[in-house]
Design brief:
The protein has 338 residues and is an alpha/beta fold. It has two domains: 2-150 and 317-336, Rossmann fold (3-Layer(aba) Sandwich); 156-310, Dihydrodipicolinate Reductase, domain 2 (2-Layer Sandwich), CATH 3.30.360. The chain is built from 13 helices and 13 strands. Helix 4 (101-110) links the parallel strand 5 (87-90) and strand 6 (114-117). The longest helix is centred in the C-terminal third of the chain and has 21 residues, at 316-336. The model has no long low-confidence stretch (mean pLDDT 95).
């Protein structure tokens, strides 16, 4: 499979490192994954015979100095249009308007290329349009890493519970706020816990989307739209962040309880309620075991009842692993179809 990568941030670099390590193992499984183009914000590295990933990472660190296959000014859109590829992996940062990722994904579909992404923005802005474009062009569109990194969500639903009905979903989908709350439960103030999160690398200096619940709400939108085939937007979610969570934590401590920023999707008849807000939970609630940067999801099924899945989140490598799994899934499905 010929892969075109867009975005060389933390997840993009982690993906290349992971592929460098796993290349021989994948070849033993009959999978030959070649990166034919890798685009960042200033240009594109191109080799239609396959780029050497360790070399790409080295040149990226050096600002592409003396790299004769890096085409400065060659945009990701140019690469999608002009370079032969099978899968476009879109890993640019999430934005409010979905760009530039939205344009990248649409362009890939128009050229009948499969898409794997960890970028939440485009799916929040134009979920139904993108799903329809993928169907019309008979290509795969996978986005496992958009909701909770490597926590198995979409792959679990599509393989194990196809015939069951989901009545409710709860989740801890934001690692930053979970870290901050965990520190506040130890007695630190919101600001002190936030400073610790920034210093430890859990929070960016621009942390508003995390602490105000926006990042978590984006994930709720993507998950609800996938499950119920809707086209919810961000303003359909009732959102409360954690800036004023300290009194709730104090009260929870007195009652021997915990506090978590819980994401909820609830189906009540024909209505679907979407919510993100801090909630007090009992010590025997499985979410009470999900601390610091870890994440989890709990599904309430009509027949299968309750399914709880949690995973430890340490670094962008886990997100990259989810992206790689999506790539391999497409490669294996294409091989099976001949």
């Amino acid at each position: 499979m010929r892969i075109q990568l867009i975005g060389l941030g933390n997840v993009g670099r982690s993906l290349l490192e992971l592929l460098s390590e796993e290349e021989q193992k994948l070849k033993v499984k009959g999978l030959d994954l070649k990166f034919v183009s890798i685009s960042d914000s200033k240009g594109t590295a191109v080799n239609e015979n396959g780029l050497k990933l360790s070399e790409v990472l080295k040149y990226k660190e050096l600002g592409w100095h003396d790299c004769n296959y890096y085409l400065k000014g060659c945009s990701a859109i140019d690469a999608i249009k002009d370079i032969s590829g099978d899968i476009v992996v879109e890993l640019t940062p999430s934005t409010i308007n979905g760009e530039p990722g939205l344009s990248h994904i649409k362009e890939a579909f128009m050229h009948k290329k499969h898409v794997v992404t960890a970028n939440k923005g485009p799916l929040v802005v134009a979920f139904k349009q993108l799903k329809n474009m993928a169907l019309e062009n008979n290509v795969y569109f996978l986005y496992e890493a958009t909701v909770a990194a490597h926590v198995p969500i979409f792959c679990l639903l599509s393989s194990c519970f196809i015939t069951d009905e989901i009545l409710r979903v709860e989740g801890i989908f934001n690692a930053t706020t979970n870290f901050i709350i965990s520190e506040m439960e130890k007695g630190f103030s919101f600001q002190e816990a936030l400073d610790k999160a920034i210093k430890a690398g859990w929070a960016e200096t621009n942390y508003a989307d995390d602490v105000d619940g926006i990042d978590a709400a984006r994930k709720v939108v993507i998950l609800a739209n996938t499950i119920y085939g809707q086209d919810f937007k961000l303003n359909d979610v009732k959102i409360e962040g954690i800036r004023n969570v300290e009194p709730l934590i104090v009260d929870a401590k007195k009652q021997g309880k915990r506090v978590k920023l819980l994401c909820e999707i609830v189906k009540e008849g024909d209505n679907i309620i979407l919510q993100v807000c801090p909630k007090m939970i009992s010590q025997d609630n499985p979410f009470s075991t999900v601390n610091y940067g870890d994440m989890a999801v709990k599904f309430y099924f009509k027949n299968s009842q309750e399914i709880f899945v949690s995973a430890k989140f340490v670094s962008p490598r886990q997100t990259a692993q989810a992206v790689l799994n999506d790539i391999v899934t497409i490669a294996l499905n294409k091989r099976c179809k001949g």
